[in-house]
Design brief:
This protein is α/β, with parallel strands linked by helices. The chain contains 14 helices and 15 strands. The structure holds pyridoxal-5'-phosphate (PLP).
């Protein structure tokens, strides 16, 4: 059982700040700076090119992949890391389409993160064989599954509202119609228990800079189910996914296992940062984390609804169909969030009117939730947000 009163001390959190944005960029583990410095000086500095073998750089993507795999219920040896999530979405989707060559439709939903939809549009355009990206409202996905669909591509937890799809039920319904699934776990990995193997998921992807605290620019992960790996064409067929990269063959031959989903040189310094974060994650019980996330989110919703009648809950009320974030609507949401940030309570804003708060039990506790509610209540009561400095939009919201 994870003791969440102890994990908070493992993170560097600025004095007085309540950070409810670990769903967007996780905070810095205290061990990260020394871990990265060691890789820079002892490995890059002293080992130079021999670091690929001596320091295990080449093995990092799959070694770290397995540690992430434990958090998402993947079979061992079926997760690897590299590139960014948008790239891994493209790769998983291209590979999934290949498994259903006679069908023409990719189904997704309008709650998906735009980059996933953009990557799908780009792929459809490049393949040029009459494929179509079809999007329906999130609640209509189940009813829209039909036998003309090649791939169902969904993000499990909606980045704006926290609404969560039933991965087990949708995967089963998709399989019943011969549809291959691609699950994006960007807002699931490190946020709630996920059971890829138990759900029979086909492909999954996600990022490591959100809940997993790997740092800005940390690599993405990709999962391919054991039953598919031998028949998966990696689409992005880079040299490090080749069966024998250092044979320098002129012809591509996919590597065995998940290694084939690698593309190019791994980001070694980012992997070192992620390694430090995984030292923390290695001992976290995901069931306990999910339960504590619900305790914190429920306390926040109750506190806000009791003190801020003008804010309207944008997330599902049932915690079992909600990820580890809570969102509220308000027409002045941007200004309110800026006023809150000025008081050291950090959430974020998503157009058109959503204020978003992430709950991350590793470093947020019930006291923090109480203080965040008090700040928000004061801002709403005194209309503190109604000042010009809170209304100018920055480039990154
Ligand atoms: C955060 C996020 C991304 C971001 O992709 P990057 O390539 O890492 O910038 C993509 N998809 C989803 C669902 C996300 O939540």
């Amino acid at each position: 059982m994870t003791d969440f009163s102890k994990t908070k001390d493992l993170f560097h959190l600025p004095e007085g700040m309540i950070y409810l944005d670990g769903n967007s960029l996780g905070p810095l583990p205290k061990a990260t700076a020394a871990r990265v410095a060691k890789t820079v000086t002892d490995e890059w500095g002293d080992l130079l090119i021999t670091g690929w073998n001596k320091a295990g750089w080449m093995a990092q993507p799959t070694a770290l992949g397995d540690r992430i795999g434990r958090l998402i219920g993947a079979e061992e040896g079926h997760v690897t890391l590299g590139d960014t999530l948008s790239i891994k979405v493209y790769q998983a989707l291209a590979s999934a389409i290949d498994l259903n060559p006679d069908r023409k439709v990719i189904l997704s939903d309008t709650g998906n993160f735009p980059s996933d939809l953009y990557m799908a549009e780009g792929l459809v355009g490049s393949l040029g064989r009459g494929l179509e990206l079809r999007t329906v409202a999130p609640e209509d996905v189940l009813g829209a599954l039909s036998s003309d669909i090649a791939v169902l591509m969904l993000t499990q937890v909606d980045y704006r509202t926290g609404r969560m799809h039933d991965m087990a039920a949708l995967t089963k319904a998709a399989h019943d119609k011969g549809i291959v699934t691609v699950w994006d776990l960007a807002h699931s990995a490190g946020a709630l228990p996920v059971d890829l193997a138990g759900c029979g998921a086909d492909f999954a992807v996600g990022c490591t800079y959100k809940y997993l605290n790997g740092g800005p620019g940390a690599p993405a992960f990709i999962y391919v189910a054991p039953r598919h790996i031998a028949g998966t064409r990696p689409a992005l067929s880079g040299w490090l996914g080749h069966a024998a990269p250092f044979a320098f063959d002129l012809d591509y031959r996919a590597g065995t296992g998940i290694e084939r989903m690698r593309v190019g040189t791994p980001p070694v310094l980012q992997m070192a940062a992620l390694d430090a974060a995984m030292e923390i994650w290695d001992s976290v019980d995901m069931g306990a984390l999910g339960a504590q996330s619900i305790v914190l989110s429920e306390a926040f919703i109750a506190g806000v609804e009791a003190t801020c009648p003008d804010l309207q809950l944008a997330s599902p009320r049932d915690p079992n169909i909600r990820g580890s974030q809570v969102s509220f609507h308000h027409a002045e949401g941007y200004a309110i969030m800026q006023a809150l940030i000025a008081q050291g309570v950090i959430g974020d804003f998503r157009a058109p009117d959503i204020m978003r708060f992430g709950f991350t039990p590793l470093f947020i506790d019930e006291d923090d939730v109480g203080r965040a509610v008090d700040s928000l209540a004061g801002i709403m009561r005194d209309k503190t947000w109604d000042q010009p400095q809170f209304k100018t939009r920055a480039a990154v919201t």
